[in-house]
Amino acid sequence: MEPDVVVAPPTAERVAAALTTGWLGRAYEWHDQCPSTSDLAAARARAGAPAGLVIAADAQTAGRGRLGRSWHSPAGESLYFSILLRPARPANEIPPLTLVAGAAVADAVAPLGVAPRLKWPNDLQLVGRDGARRKLCGILTEMATSGARVEHVVVGIGINVNGVDFPPELVDRATSLRAALGRPIDRAALLAAVLAAFEPRYAAFEQRGPAAAAAAFDAYAALPDRCRVSNGGAPLEGVALGVDDDGALRLRDDDGRIHRIISGELLPS
Question: Taking the model in full, what pTM does it have?
Fold first, then answer.
């Protein structure tokens, strides 16, 4: 791979040349910089943009993750993009779409020679040579409804691709494909691979609902795993076993009781 190809941004022309999807990403916007690709996608959705629109940026000034956290989004290194969807499933079935997106990213990066693992509910990690898991990708799914009807869903995805320098608070918890592989990765080709993996997984979700999301998660789940779950109350400690068909995490506490966790954050035990 030529060096200029590796560092070239995933512009519309380069992504179009790499796409193999039927509909996903055929409408595509590239921005050198924007506050948030997800905010742009939501604005396009309100204006009537079709499902399958993908908006990507070289840098974000207000990228965000779950629980109001900011997303480290420097220019020229990584992939920051959002997918606009208009699913026919009911609103209560939409949250597990995050698991579908995580599995699609895992599908795309595994052939590069890394070992991806999904951490419930929205992170993709890589297993390093030291056996430790570090965050490669974060996903944020946001939904707009009208009554019981889903108007649109925006799936925002951030993947650490070629960066090797992280802020002090992330250096022990984050990694990138370049750091794991020792070589740079073409972002346009990687984006096309993620979209190619997401399209059939999303079709399965549209057909089967959250059960398809649970199966997608199980393929790469970093489970069973001893952990604590924080969901606003006292942390619950035990062993995470898997997810139910609606995307809820099953956790067995030290007394053997099984708990269903609808939302929260997994913490090291």
Answer: 0.90
